[in-house]
Amino acid sequence: MLFQDQIALVTGASGGIGSAIAASLAAHGAAIRLVGRNAEALQAVARGAGERISCDVADIASDQDVCDLRARIERECGRLDILVHSAGLFSLGGVSAAPVAEFDRQYRINLRAPYVLTQALLPLIRKCRGQIVFINSTAGLNAQPNVSQYAATKHGLRALADSLRDEVNADGVRVLSVFLGRTASPMQRAIHELEGKAYRSEELIQPEDVGTALVALLGLPRTVEVTNVAMRPLKRPADAPEAMVLPGRNRWS
Questions:
Q1: Catalytic residue among 107, 115, 150, 199
Q2: Which residue range(s) make up the domain with 89?
Q3: CATH number, domain at 141?
């Protein structure tokens, strides 16, 4: 199988995009470490994703939890072939009114946590010439009104990936950023409700589409590195940009 004998760690794996990525990698032979804060939700994902699944309950915003997670991976696995950063937090609001505290929350989850976790696990990834994936957003390419805080963290995540890629290239480590448009998920359903729009999940990117794309990209021969991929729903709404533009603020994790 494509990822036989490989170990993959996926953050934000308790549902949505993260769980779909984990299931796709598991279906192609990888042993999966699911990382999230909700033990019950992780166990539910694990039951449907195959046999070689482990659940690591951890808050990636906690330096101590990251340190403990790194120690477990090193002790139980000794290596890490694939690291997928899929956890994220979103808050809506204009620059004139959005609380700085919300900016701080998004920064810790969307940017600082991937940095700290990558730094902690990089020796294990270098050991096996592994791969690192940053699940980003189209807001990381083009910021729309009322998402300045979220977009800033996603622009920062892109910069982190770009810099890291050049730092680890000589070690044979590949780094991929995936910029997603609107993707069917509980978070996206809530956003549609706020916008007063009917939620038609079939018209959005499916989480399974993301998993399928990652399997193809991560499975490419070692003669090539894909650096950036942007995905969007095929059906383009006539009156709505990718980013959420409502006034006020809301958040999801």
A1: 150
A2: 7-233+241-252
A3: 3.40.50.720
Per-residue pLDDT of the chain (253 residues; tens, 9 = 90+): 899 999 999 999 988 899 999 999 999 999 999 999 999 999 999 987 777 899 999 999 999 999 999 999 999 999 999 999 999 988 888 999 999 999 999 999 999 999 999 999 999 999 999 999 999 999 999 999 989 999 999 999 999 999 999 999 999 999 999 999 999 987 788 777 766 789 899 999 999 999 999 999 999 999 999 999 999 999 876 655 544 433 333 433 3
Is residue 73 assigned to a domain? Answer: yes
Instruction: Give the span between the Cα atoms of 115 and 92, in whole angstroms.
Output: 23
Query: How many angstroms separate the CA atoms of 33 and 10, rounded?
Result: 6
The predicted model scores a pTM of 0.92
- SS3 state of residue 228: strand
Q: Is-contact 147 92, C-beta < 8 A? A: yes
In a domain, 132, yes or no: yes
Q: Is 107 a catalytic residue?
A: no
- 2 part of a folded domain: no
